[in-house]
Amino acid sequence: MAKRMMVMLALVVLAISALAFVKVRQFRAMAAQFAAMQPPPEAVTTTTAQQEEWPMTIDAIGTVAAVQGVVVSADLPGIVDRIAFESGKTVQEGDLLVQLDTKQEQAQLAAAEAQLELARVNFERMTGLVEQDAVARAEYDTAAAAHKQGVARVNEIRATIERKTIRAPFSGVLGIRQANLGQYLNGGDPVVPLQKLDPIYVNFGVPQQDTGQMRIGRKVRVVLAEHPDAAFAGRVTAIDSVVDQTTRNVQVQATLANRGAALQPGMFVRAQIALGPSRSMVVVPGSAISYAPYGDSVFVVADMKNDKGVSYRGVRQQVVKLGGSRGDQVAIVSGLDPGVEVVTSGAFKLRNGVAVQVNNSVRPANNRAPKPEDS
């Protein structure tokens, strides 16, 4: 009985050992298969880096400002007696805009002129008498002083009347009228905005690292965001002497011709400042750039080999130094040679050595002057 039990136990142990041996071999085979498996290649689009003549420019966001712009206001208080302009019209320097009521001043002027005439006659009479030693010198001095006081009084009243006659301080375009006939205006109350629009200023900020390239007289090209095809040409005429502590930008001012008043004060514009002749640069689409705090990079497609020596199409990450941008394109200052194939979409899922499959049936835009449908 004991012998039979020993035999049975030995057979069970042998069966279990055989089964374990088979399973271990199966698991090893599966592990080898998993180790030999390669992930499928990532689908990407690519383009060839081109070498092009790249204009040396700085792009900036600017605001249009009038060369001369004021809100014409009342100098002295008074009632509006006459309005001699229409809103939105062009006026010349010295044109009458508003006349305040001066009836009281006109009456005072008439009285002062009469007093002046009397003082003049008296002064002339005293002049003849003093030459004949017929009157005392003190009486002559009194007459002379009265004549001067009369002249001063007349000039004072005339100046008051002139200050109540509101004229255009310079030639320009009027805004919307802010005063009405019969309205009482206090000193400083607004009457109408007046802007000189030709020429016109464009003010924009330049980063402090680029201020060394700013020069008076550099050419500036200004484009309206809503009309990218219409450009205005001008030149840099002023550079601020301080750096803004908040933005670390330096304010630059350009002056442009503005015939037809297409540019209005307060408009948002894009300014492009020419720094010199064009340079030959390597150009790629902006979608090819992987931006990162430690450095910008692109993925270059090349022929590679795996650990077993099998060739495949893979990518390597290449750090680059960027220049300016133009439409969909970005200039590469260093780190990339022309003629190299770079990934333009799908870079977010790549890393060094990953296999890729190129499908360029649909590719990102690569236009130096794009025209979006919704612009």
Keywords for this structure?
single chain; 375 residues; conserved putative lor/sdh protein from methanococcus maripaludis s2 fold; Elongation Factor Tu (Ef-tu), domain 3; Helix Hairpins; 6-stranded antiparallel beta barrel; 4-stranded antiparallel sheet
For the largest sheet, list the strands in their spatial order. Answer: 2-9-12-11-10-13
- How many helices? The count is 3
Report the helical percentage. 10-25%
N→C terminal distance: 98 Å
Percent of residues in beta strands: 35-45%
Rounded radius of gyration (Å):
43 Å
In total, how many beta strands? 19
**CATH classification, class level of the domain at 42-53 and 279-358:** Mainly Beta
How are helices and strands ordered from N to C?
A: HEEEEEHHEEEEEEEEEEEEEE
Q: Strand pairing plus helix content: what structural class?
A: alpha+beta
On the 0-100 scale, what is the average pLDDT?
83
CATH topology of the domain at 42-53 and 279-358: conserved putative lor/sdh protein from methanococcus maripaludis s2 fold
| CATH architectural group of the domain at 42-53 and 279-358 | Beta Barrel
Low-confidence stretches: none
Task: Please give the largest β-sheet.
Answer: 6 strands, antiparallel, barrel
What would the principal axes of the Cα set say about the shape?
rod-shaped
